[in-house]
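=== RUN LOG ===
request id: a7f3
mode: sequence -> structure
chains: 1
length: 977
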Amino acid sequence: MDVQSAGVSEVVRTQEILALPLNGRNAADLVSIAGAAVRTGEANTRSMAGGVAYSVAGGQSFGVAFLLDGAMHNDPQNNLNLPLPFPDALQEFRVATSGLTAENGMHSGASVNAVTKSGTNRFTGNVFEFLRDHRFNATNPFALKKPDGTRQDDGLVRNQFGGTLGGPLVQNRLFFFGAYQGTIVRQTPAANITYVPSAAMLAGDFTAFASPACNGGRQVTLRGGFVNNQIDPARFSPAALNLVKRLPATTDPCGQITYTSTDDSTEGQAVGRIDYQLTANHSVFGRYMATSVKNPSPLTRSDNILSLYNTSRLAGVPGLDKLAQSFAAGDTLVFGPKTVNSLRFAFNRTAITRLDTPVFDPYALKSNVYSYDPGAMVVAVTGGFNIANPGGGLFITNSSQLSDDLTMVRGNHELAFGANVAYWTHYFFSHARSGGDWLFSGQLTGLGLADLMLGRVGRLEHGGPAILPMNQWYLGTYVQDTWRATSRMTVNMGFRWEPYFGANVLNNAVYNFSLDNFRKGIKTTVFKNAPAGLIYPGDAGFPPGKTGLNTQWWNLSPRVGVAWDLAGNGRTALRSAYGIAYDFPTAEYQLINANSPPFGNRSLVEDPPGGFDNPYAHLGGDPHPFITGPDTPFIPFGAYGATSPDINSPRIQQWNVTFERQIGKVWQASVSYLGSYTDRLWGQVAINPGVFLGLGPCTLNGVFYATCSTAGNLNQRRVFSLSGENPAAAGLIGNMDMHTDIGTQSYRGLRLSFLRRAASGVSLNGNYTWSRCFGSATTPGGGFPQIANGYTNPSDPSFDNGHCEQDRTHIGSFTAGAQTPQFASPALRAFASDWRVSGILSATSGSWLNIINGRDNALTGIQQQRVNQISDDVYGDKSVNRYLNPAAFAQTAPGTLGSYVRNSIKGPAFWTIDAALSRQVSVGGARSMEFRLEAFNLLNTFNMGNPVTNFNAGNFGRIIAMAGAPRIMQFGVKYGF
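=== RESULT ===
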């Protein structure tokens, strides 16, 4: 038992890693069994597959530091883990959090250290095959129904195969280890639920679609003067009709369809390692790993444009070609019995290609909008369908790291000193808005599909390809003293220094905004047509370099901890620790900002008079395309996001108290109090929102409006436009988000755990965490924030305070393993020996739900406005069709913000059991065969996904997907030698 360190940690060794049923055999999922860990997502399509977002002990989901063989193994693009070696190539996996010593840095929430296997003086290895087939699996309860009434399965066929080999090249000196795993998946999920225009809607009859049967018990009356929910088809948009022709038809009166997609992939991972023992006190190693993933576009096996969107994951499904490479080398030198120096070097590279899938663009629909990537556009209809075809993309990240750690034992002190230097480059090229990102929100009529047919665009984001080339430096140094104060008390004291340098944007697509310059009419010297107030590299007042930020030198991290062996026999420990740690945003955080004029020239148009067919008509026509240069014209009311030059990296204070006791020879139990306070979280404050001026008539800038406040005159009602201080500049600035570090979050948790670790028989490991995290809203996953998606009340950001996105009140994890003994009887030994059963029980309470209007009722241009809560009876019967009670909520009045407290209602809980049954049979000498049967979601638990939380959607409160997967069976065989 640990009676010296002050943190909270968990170690999983190779035998346990191989025994546990890991779905997908991704070692990153081992983080969840450490306790107080919440899985909040996974790597997006712009980054390498295998990355998993975990929040540990209230930390940020991008705040886990991963080390592989002691070297950096995070992907700076999203701050998640790079692919880890598959289980047969792993030696050890360790998770530590809360009270981390000073040697742990770069990320603040937790530290994960994985170690690859090494060769030994004996040749050992294995070959294996794991198989899944749809015929043995349960079907998704949301899947299509076949004519006989049964659900259509997903057609899954999955083969995972490979092997390992390690041994000596020179006895006692030079060793090698190599491993390969390939995975081929062919799958056709048939559980995507969405809504398209029915024949009645196409005839102008929306009575059925607006009825309570299609709207969660609510009757909808179309706004806009349409009698009896009838619309004259002559008013339909030609572009909308051209779009609908490309959609599958439906016979459902609510327009519902369930469609299939594809989820095919071909993956491979190769690992190689060399260890060289130069002398008894000097060793070196080198390790290389490459992981490739290829996902063809769903349209290679389907002609349904909707198949590019997965409604279960609420994400697009593009074609992808991914490659991650990782190299690490290390030198460990022992200077006598009391001094050790460890030197590590790492180089990691990811290259992600999002394949271009030309289908149609606005011109093909006869909409007068230019696409920078012909054949691509994105369409989202509230309460309806999504078309996710943004176009191609290329995302390349190279990162290098050099670290050195020196440890010395001097008397009762174990002193450690170290430094860690890292540098990464990132190239981001994406056609995300090149054909326009079109939203039909139902803002105008009350139903998204009605808005679509009328061509009433709620919001159009449009611009050239997003290009972000950047680099960034990291520096961390530390000193640590582990002082054995008495025979029973150990004091850990440390100090770490981690300045924040910011990211250099190499194409100069970085800027600040000065309100004083705006008011005084001071313009940039870089772009002659830019509005006053924008400051670019080379301008007076712009910070040195190309980060737009002032270097934050004083990021100091004191760490202190005490471990007390209460009885002096190593069986009872009381430990406590406190520390400060820092984090930093993802490499792609500045993407949206960098896509503003005059680079990507992103524009944002709300409720344009010309509608779907000609949304730029009121601005004199489509201003795109642009070519960036000193003379580039700036589009009217462009969309911007500027960063405060004094912004600092997020900071977290963590503390814990742990009481731990060994019971008997194999049992161990502990109770831990975990706390943290995070501040300097980045968020967006709109400094140029629309101002609500009432619903009566008014004149703005010489133009008469019968209704003074509408979505269509948002730009004329913005703060800058109304100020009259600089009309010329105000006419070029629409949305302006200021990124600041004012966010805070507070976490408290109680972690209970027990462990039974025995050399044979039954092994048990369980933990339960009861916790609460409350504070500011943050950008999900720490990625790039979207335009106008910051604090909904810019004058009072605390209005958005609520439960953290990563907050789960209850988190439980239990693992078990049991192995039958070697029986003396030959008959029993033949049939009953060497059976092993293992399992994982995972359970969490629901995530928190943010109930939004789905409309800009406040008429400020800021998204994600919340509803009014008019009753405490917020739940329906918690069924699939009525999880939430629509009668408990109401749309807000024009010009107001809702009373609903962000993230104050829980979604459905989740629990599942994964189990494995295996038997190892000796086939002579050191050779063996292992036969394995695994079941993921053994009991076929129906875990409901979160309900639809957009109050403006007809399916509000309804659950349209399950969380996790239905029961999956896996058969495996492994030959070891």
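=== NOTES ===
The mean pLDDT is 93.
The chain is about 5% helix and 40% strand.
=== END ===
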